[in-house]
């Protein structure tokens, strides 16, 4: 029987895996990194490290920035230098000790030590100024938007430097949602113009500094951006929704990038979930997408689920499909 890492490599290279990769089983997330992120708990509102107000209302499954007139940080992108100040990367002595200890405890022969990065560069533009303002500014103020993106990219590179110096990760799980379920937020041409070079720098830095696996999370439609993902250096697109034609993408791009997802979290991850529902969704996903260049997984951006038990129940069904199809 192949190890978890060996089996993943067989999937990614179009070889002979002996089972389905089970969601995030190959990544050991090190969540004790001193990221400096300020996050609310349920029912709280905080001002984060960039000065953005983040609120997590009761009854919602996640927190999100607040962009009404009273709270928005950046109203006009041409004034970004006045309002956008990158947080310091200085950390107190010993701040990295727990994360380093957690990384050292991982069996690296079997799992990838992975760092988590969020929000991504595109997400930061709308965290700072709201989605509508951000999207309009790509058209109305492209020069200022490019300056802001370059500034955010430099911060990401500073953070990447701290990660590789202290943690020496084998993998990163990097968030940046680039679309809705049905379309990308930017046209492929505009996305390439504003974000391709940024991510080539960021992912290129990680690859040049010992990071073997770039896992990019975008739980969305993004089929039209796959050529850009490949050029950036993405190894696994995590969060690929079934609103993308996954079998077609595997056929066209599988030898260059692996697709992880296909199990629609909206269908399985809700308060009234059932094992039968999850079984049907996992069965469809595994049968449609095959054994190579594909990892069956919920589209969640971390190992876990919004409602207790769903992630573990999904693992059980992936194991059942392994028994049926391998």
Automatic annotation (TrEMBL):
<protein>
    <submittedName>
        <fullName>Uroporphyrinogen decarboxylase</fullName>
    </submittedName>
</protein>
<dbReference type="Pfam" id="PF01208">
    <property type="entry name" value="URO-D"/>
</dbReference>
<dbReference type="InterPro" id="IPR052024">
    <property type="entry name" value="Methanogen_methyltrans"/>
</dbReference>
<dbReference type="InterPro" id="IPR038071">
    <property type="entry name" value="UROD/MetE-like_sf"/>
</dbReference>
<dbReference type="InterPro" id="IPR000257">
    <property type="entry name" value="Uroporphyrinogen_deCOase"/>
</dbReference>
<feature type="domain" description="Uroporphyrinogen decarboxylase (URO-D)">
    <location>
        <begin position="120"/>
        <end position="305"/>
    </location>
</feature>
């Amino acid at each position: 029987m192949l190890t978890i890492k060996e089996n993943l490599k067989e999937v990614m290279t179009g070889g002979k895996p002996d089972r389905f990769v089970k969601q995030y089983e190959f990544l050991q997330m090190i969540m004790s990194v001193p990221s400096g992120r300020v996050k609310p708990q349920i029912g709280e509102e905080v001002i984060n490290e960039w000065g953005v107000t983040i609120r997590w209302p009761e009854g919602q499954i996640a927190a999100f920035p607040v962009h009404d007139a009273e709270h928005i940080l950046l109203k006009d992108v041409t004034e970004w230098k006045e309002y956008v100040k990158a947080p310091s990367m200085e950390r107190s002595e010993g701040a990295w000790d727990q994360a380093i200890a957690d990384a050292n405890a991982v069996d690296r022969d079997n799992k990838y030590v992975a760092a988590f990065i969020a929000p991504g560069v595109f997400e930061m533009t709308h965290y700072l100024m709201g989605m509508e303002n951000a999207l309009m500014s790509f058209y109305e103020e492209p020069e200022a938007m490019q300056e802001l993106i370059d500034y955010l990219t430099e911060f990401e590179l500073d953070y990447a430097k701290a990660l590789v110096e202290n943690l020496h990760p084998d993998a990163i799980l990097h968030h940046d949602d680039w679309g809705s379920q049905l379309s990308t937020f930017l046209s492929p041409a505009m996305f390439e113009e504003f974000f391709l070079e940024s991510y080539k720098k960021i992912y290129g830095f990680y690859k040049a500094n010992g990071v073997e696996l770039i896992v990019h999370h975008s739980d969305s439609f993004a089929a039209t951006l796959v050529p850009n993902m490949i050029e950036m250096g993405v190894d696994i697109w995590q969060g690929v929704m079934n609103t993308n034609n996954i079998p077609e993408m595997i056929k066209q791009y599988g030898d260059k990038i692996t697709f992880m997802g296909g199990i629609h979290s909206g269908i399985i991850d809700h308060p009234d979930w059932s094992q039968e529902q999850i079984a049907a969704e996992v069965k469809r996903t595994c049968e449609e997408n095959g054994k190579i260049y594909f990892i069956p997984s919920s589209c969640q951006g971390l190992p876990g689920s919004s409602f207790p038990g769903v992630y573990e129940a999904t693992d059980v069904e992936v194991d059942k499909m392994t028994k049926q199809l391998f």
